[in-house]
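User: Hey, quick favor. My workstation is busy. Could you predict this chain's structure for me?
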Amino acid sequence: MPKRSEEMLVDLWMSLLLVWITCVPSISTTPIGGQSRTAQTGGSAAAASGLGEGQRLLSRAKRGWVWNQMFVLEEFSGRDPILVGRLHTDLDVGNKNIKYVLAGEGAGTIFAINELTGDIHAMKRLDREEKAEYTLTAQVVNADTDEPLEPPSEFIIKVQDINDNPPQFIEGPYRASVPEMSAVGTPVTRVTATDADDPVYGNSAKLVYSILDGQPYFSVDPNSATIKIALHGMDREVKEEYFVVIQAKDMGGHMGGLSGTTTVTIMLTDINDNPPKFSKSLYEFGIPEDLPIGKTGGKVKASDRDIGENAKSTYNIIEGDDLGTFEIITDAQTQDGILRLRKPLDYESKKAYTLKVEATNVRSEPGSGGPFKDTATVKIVVEDADEPPVFSKPMYLLEVKENAPVATVIGRVAARDPDSSGSLVRYFIDRHTDLERQFNINVDDGNITLAKPLDRETDMWHNITVTATEVRNHSQISRAIVAIRVMDINDNAPEFATEYEAYLCENGKPGQVIHTVSAIDKDDPSQGHRFDYRLVQEMQSNPNFTIKHNQDNSISVVAKHDSFRRQKQEIYYLPIVVSDQGHPPMSSTNTLTIRVCGCSRDLVVQSCNVEAYVLPIGLSMGALIAILACIILLLVIVVLFVTLRRHKNEPLIIKDDEDVRENIIRYDDEGGGEEDTEAFDIATLQNPDGINGYLPRKDIKPDLQFMPRAGQHSGPNGVDVDEFINVRLHEADNDPTAPPYDSIQIYGYEGRGSVAGSLSSLETASSDSDQNYDYLREWGPRFRRLGELYSVGESDRET
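Assistant: No problem, here it is.
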């Protein structure tokens, strides 16, 4: 099979490189170690003839390399290993006792060396994109002993690039946007492709960009890959989205280069280049005249081909609504123009309206000359509706004098039917606002009259609601508020402001002011109150008191002498007549109570009772009451103290009738000796068999029936207490119904006033033989018998 032209060129280049490396004469090179070495042919023979003499080898340190920086093509895929280069030393002059050793990156795996000839071969396929160069070390050693004949030298094998990687768009696919109607040449976006080949060797990484799809709308710069507008007047409303395919080709775009593509989605963004447009030039609406204020009467719509903020519009009424009956607002969601009512409609006064409405864009583009607008005509026809009656006033204010006679006409309300038919109207009072039914209204003419007399002092204002209803349609009802003010007349007499009680000092001087009196009047005259005070006719020449008029509508009561005494008269009653200046004048008689009291020198009242004279000097009734209360309190404290002491001294002993326990026996004395018979029932000991020889248990409730044992009988008079106790102990131990515990009786109370200690011998450290009981005789007659018993016991033990 014939080779391709590229492979033939590579083979030819490799052959020339091999010939150059092998045929080049000995060249003085500079190894990486920095020492300059020169080729020498004579020295190599001497070294070869004296390989066994180490001293001759060490004396010859110079050596010269015949080699150059080596290259190898990547991706070589021949059947045999490719020759990279050949190493040669001055010592190699036909002597067969030397060999070449290769070390470093890839030595033995990727690169192999012929030990005899120094030829280096690449054993594997290389990829420059994985590793571009390899650093190796070459050395000549003795073939027999592996001893180095020369120091190692370092060289580099570089992998030469071929165009084996296509361009790639790492960040693709791309998305970009550009405003619609942009000028030709406006940059949209920039794409970037990368090539893994060597950018400094040949044109393998030199990229050229071109557009495969997207013309004639867009173009791309071949070097910078910037996408630009290529067509004038690109309108978003015509087409919003474009798909552009961009190609990147290496080898400078020449034939044989590799290529890669990416897609760019370009969106045209909106600008405000379209005006709002009404769908119709004339809108017609029918609105009933009873439409409530603020309700919708109709909707208009101006469409805009733009989107977002550019499509928003506002609506205005520019003609035909001089009275401001209507308003139009914008619905933020639907962008509709909503026509609403601002004032009530009246079919009878105006039956139609013609409005001119304008829609204006909210925002405009700079340099466009202002926002876009559009207008439309709106014709509104008012439809007749059955309206409720209309009062002449929304609120009426009427006045009537208090105590006016029943059926007095207070005022009149009036309402009419606004419809063209003009129905009759009937009037009623809403009784929820007149619960006491104090007013009436004429159903035909609307005259309001009194049903009950009114009192201004009780209620000054009355607010009622009057309804007007059409005769032909009772569902049509209107309401009006009627405020009725009750006017004042002089129908109340003045009286004291409060129930006054004055105090007069016995040691007072003539002419002293006893009290100041004022009056009030429930009436409310327009000129204000003015009262006249005088004593009653019988008291005009009162020998004790007189009155003095003040300038503030009050009077002062003055004493005429200083001979007032409580023993003579304790209380005086002074009637005073108070009258107003109304029409007609009203008056009332009020009584002032004056109490004679004992006072200090400073005329401070101290006592006003006659009983105060019988009290000791310096003590008043209040002081005696306080002293008596203290005495009673002390007595109560003493009684409580005595009671608590008595309760405290009582023994903490449970009474027999309160003790419900059956296994506790109480001892409340010092020990009664033979007289103590409460600890046991002697009758039980004398009759051990009990009733029929069986004693019932009281501490438990037996589950099994316990039968009395036979064969245990004692004579009626021959009671053996020791045998009885042993028998009962044996029965208790073998009784299956007995509780698993013993009954323990604790005696912790030694009796009142006892001077003796504990009688128990459990706490004593001495034995019975060391104990002396003579001290018991010193404790009194109660313990003398006990001492004699213990003394007898001691003498018997000694005997």
